[in-house]
Amino acid sequence: MSTDDDRIREMVARLSLAEKVGLLTGRDFWSTTPLPSIGLRSIVLSDGPSGVRGPVWDERDPSINLPSATALSSSWDVAVATRYGVVAAAEARRKGVDVVLGPTINLHRSPLGGRHFEAFSEDPVLTAALAAAYVSGVQGAGVAATPKHYVANDFETERFTASVEVDERALREVYLRAFEDAVVVARAWVVMSAYNAVNGVTASEHDLLETPLNSEWGFDGVVVSDWTAVRSIAAARASQDLAMPGPAGAWGDPLAAAVRAGEVAEAAIDRKVARILRLAARVGALEGTAPRDVPAGDDLGAAILSPSTRTAPARIEAGRTYALTYRFEYVPVPGGLEGLLATGIGLGPDSTAPERLLAGAESLARESDVVVLVVGTNSRVESEGRDRTTLRLPGRQEELARRVIAANPRTVVVVNSGSPVLLPAADDAAAVLLTWFGGQEYGTALGDILSDAEEPGGRLPTTWPRAFEDVPVANVTPENGRLAYDEGIHIGYRAWLRAGREPLYWFGQGEGYTTFAVGEPRVAPVADGFEVVVDVRNTGDRAGKHVIQVYAARPGTAIDRPVRWLAGFQAVRLGPGEAAAARVAVPRRAFAHWDDGWSYEPGEFDLVVARSAGDPGTVVRVTIQDDGR
């Protein structure tokens, strides 16, 4: 045991039961209970997946508004995710926030999920890697990150009460896998438990908080509840540590009485208190401790919005969440395109769009050399607390797109949404730019990309359907309080491949403004799996980015598996004519399946280097033994 642990144990031993129980419920909406007798100040928490809101929410205390998680995940770049976390930490420190309540790493199980703009991806491996990088960026600056919402909170309808019915294999291989790296690799200091139940047990009372989170992954931080998600004393018998908000709630005096009655062991209370004190020491809230300094030389504005890292811009009218911020400044589309376009017509996504506006847009398009048509959603369409009922663009935007493109096929369609929408006119457009929700610099970023000053460079973190009827996993509405994940491990592109359906755009798909030649992959065994090495050359006349994607597959498998599944990836940035060897680590766990433990089907597996989940790619074969070697 370390000296810090000895000190924390001694502190806990000095506290009365009332003092200990008092530390386990928030002092108010955003902060924990202080205890001056042991040098403990209040710990301040704040929403912050795309900008740190802070305990005060008004125009006097603005925040940087960062691109949405779907924009960040389009980078497929852990370095970008780390720098994003650094910006979030610096904002937190500026606002006196100790704990950032993010990242949101629930999965895009269905494109109807109302909060998917705030989550990374449909794939657990991509999500896990980016989440770990985000956590490392935040905590490297002495601020706690909070992966959320643990676990299977991939929908909003009846989220407070619904039970997700999911088998153990899907839970381990898909939904828990998305959380794993943030804890095991990045050592997250806080994890948030979800509102929903899993197989009939409320998340804040679930054994999953102990296994695998603590016992297998080595989590030694604080499990904080989603706000009001602790509803009973039963949560105190589980590995739930902190109930927020406070001071009213299910714990407090009733919890103290339950301990005295022997219904809850005082040792369980002591462990929770010790974890809160450990968190306090990590963020500098305990006397004699101090948070780490924000890494020097990482400019707030440049860290995520610089040309070298900007990958998917979007406008400030983003999805609605309790993490809303008042932003410093906002560069809208017209401001960003000033000097590029001669004139324009405004048509918001909520507008009923009178015929005169559509006719005017059509006429203007016919007279123009090039058209930039911006369509999309807003916070009335994508929102925490409710799921979508359709993927269609709101208002008359589909009609607008058809008429404008028919009038001028030299139309660039810019899609400003946080999640997939239907684009029936996409095939007829000259180009389609998926911009997601990109924060306060949306207009500037869009102008840079459309003027060829910068390239988009992103790859899709989720599959986009051509028609809603094609979506293989769509249901987000519980029946009789239950939402069945009957598809098991087959979500996202896995489900599309299993169904043999062709989407509009595959997971991993994306283009830039240059071309790349990719050599034959080479594979070599390493200590924990394999390393795939691929030579990449920029064959164009400008700088750009390519993403090496490695998928695993098992021909002739004896068990139910995806057709292929993401095993590793690596972003490569090269100047014109430059070449590099991309190295992609494929851990042996990529070949495992869950069967009351991690198991390995011995034999030959394919590693497929592809440009997307739907690209046949180039195959190299490896052999796996029954112990995973």
TrEMBL record:
SMART domains: Fn3_like (SM01217)
Coiled-coil features, chain-numbered ranges: none
Keyword Hydrolase annotated: yes
Source species, domain of life: Bacteria
Residue ranges occupied by any Fibronectin type III-like domain in the UniProt entry: 546-613
Keywords annotated in UniProt: Hydrolase
Similarity field: Belongs to the glycosyl hydrolase 3 family.
Protein name: Fibronectin type III-like domain-containing protein
Species annotation: Actinomadura vinacea
